[in-house]
Write a structure and sequence with these properties.
The complex is a heterodimer of chains A (86) and B (290). Chain A is of the alpha+beta class. In chain A, 27% of the residues lie in helices and 19% in strands. Chain A has a domain of 59 residues. Chain A has 2 helices and 3 strands, in the order βαβαβ. In chain A, β2, α2 and β3 form a beta-alpha-beta unit. Chain B is α+β, with helices and mostly antiparallel strands and 290 residues long. Classes of the chains: A alpha+beta (86), B alpha+beta (290). β1 of chain A pairs antiparallel with β5 of chain B.
Chain lengths: 86, 290
């Protein structure tokens, strides 16, 4: 019983990191997702699940970044979306 | 969702303008009046409270934590993407850094940064046909005794790491002796000490001895947070340790790659943690080379 050896991580997406001026939190999500998809050798259309990792309160002036909002900006319609709780 | 066949490829993403966009500073304003009345602001204060109790019960505090801060910095010095890549840290640097909230100095705290990180998860079967060598999830354990320290039933552990670690190891069918390296959620140095202790890598209060002689550093017998971690690479919640576990097992870590290049064991199995709610919620993941 359990998950042992049934699932795999197949791609990692990075972005610039540190003090990066003039960027929104959303833009980092979009870049990280896009880079992870190409790292895995997949296409955007292959992705059918979207989970936003647990997160802090939104930055001043930014909306809360729900998976629904990420999906809209990514141009995806995932079968499953989830927002991790803290 | 993968098991049920609802999804084939799941992306997990994090993005935050934590520094330039002021996101991390928002934590200072999420404090309740009952805490603020005692000068208790933000995440540093909450973890400092737990760490102080830890020092009362088992930890030697900064004398132990300096090994974690300096050891992880050595890894960051091998990682061109790490925020602290060009900044070596001496013992003097560690102790000369200003106190933020006692007993934490500046270098006991993780980075505040902008950026994002994402991973793709699929079935082991589908993974075989993809571009990268797959990294398999061997075990997972979750334990969430509370979701904030104000509602905690303990202050100095054992944290959720203890039951979560046992569940994950049992699922993987292995013991700690099979673990080649660890990527531990390291919002603060103390988090690394108490998490490794609760997993059972050393006995109660024996962290100081265990860390002697560069245990977690390049060349050490149990490498920890080999990207530099949240303390010295960058903070992306649990995706800092998860991404590094995966990249190490894929063999894509360049100068900091575990194995002959860093005089460490070639990694087959890496243990990884995430925690939240000030040492309350906890996830332990065990990955292996596919």
């Amino acid at each position: 019983m359990g998950l042992k050896d049934k699932y795999a991580v197949v791609g990692v997406g990075y972005t610039p990191q540190g003090k990066v001026a003039d960027r929104t939190s959303l833009s980092f999500h979009l870049e990280a997702v896009s880079n992870a998809i190409s790292d895995a050798g997949l296409k955007k259309e292959d992705i059918d699940g979207l989970i936003a990792y647990r997160h802090f309160p939104p930055c001043p002036g930014e909306p809360d970044l729900t998976p629904q909002l990420l999906a809209q900006h990514l141009g995806m319609t995932p079968a499953y979306m989830y927002q991790d709780a803290n | 969702m993968l098991e049920a066949g609802i999804c084939n490829y799941v992306v997990i993403s994090y993005g935050h303008s934590g520094l330039w966009g002021g996101g991390m500073r928002q934590l200072l304003f999420s404090t309740r009046a009952s805490e603020a009345a005692f000068g208790h602001f933000g995440a540093v204060g909450r973890y400092a409270l737990a760490a102080r109790r830890g020092m009362h019960e088992f930890s030697r505090g900064p004398e132990t934590w300096k090994h974690i801060a300096m050891g992880q910095r050595k890894w960051a010095n091998l990682n061109p993407a790490a925020i602290m890549h060009h900044k070596p840290m001496s013992e003097e640097d560690y102790f000369n850094a200003p106190l933020v909230v006692e007993p934490f100095r500046l270098f006991d705290s993780c980075q505040m940064n902008d950026g994002g990180r994402a991973i793709i998860v699929t079935t082991a079967e589908r993974a075989k046909d993809l571009k990268q060598p797959p990294v398999l999830l061997m075990g997972m354990g979750l334990a969430n005794p509370s979701n904030e320290i104000g509602q905690a039933q303990y202050m100095a552990g054992p944290t959720g790491a203890k039951p979560a670690g046992k569940t994950a190891l049992d699922m993987a069918g292995i013991g700690l002796e099979d673990i080649d390296a660890c990527q531990i959620y390291d919002c603060f140095t103390y988090t690394v000490e108490v998490t490794l202790q609760d997993y059972g890598f050393f006995g109660h209060g024996e962290g100081h001895d265990w860390l002697q002689g560069g245990t977690i550093e390049p060349g050490g017998r149990m490498p920890v947070n080999t990207s530099g971690g949240q303390l010295s690479e960058a903070y992306f919640m649990g995706l800092t340790p998860i991404a590094e576990s995966v990249m190490q097992l894929m063999g894509r870590c360049g100068q900091r790659q575990l194995g002959p290049r860093t005089q460490t064991k070639e990694p087959q199995i890496i243990l990884c943690s995430d925690n939240g709610g000030t040492l309350q919620s906890h996830a332990c993941l065990i990955f292996r080379r596919g």
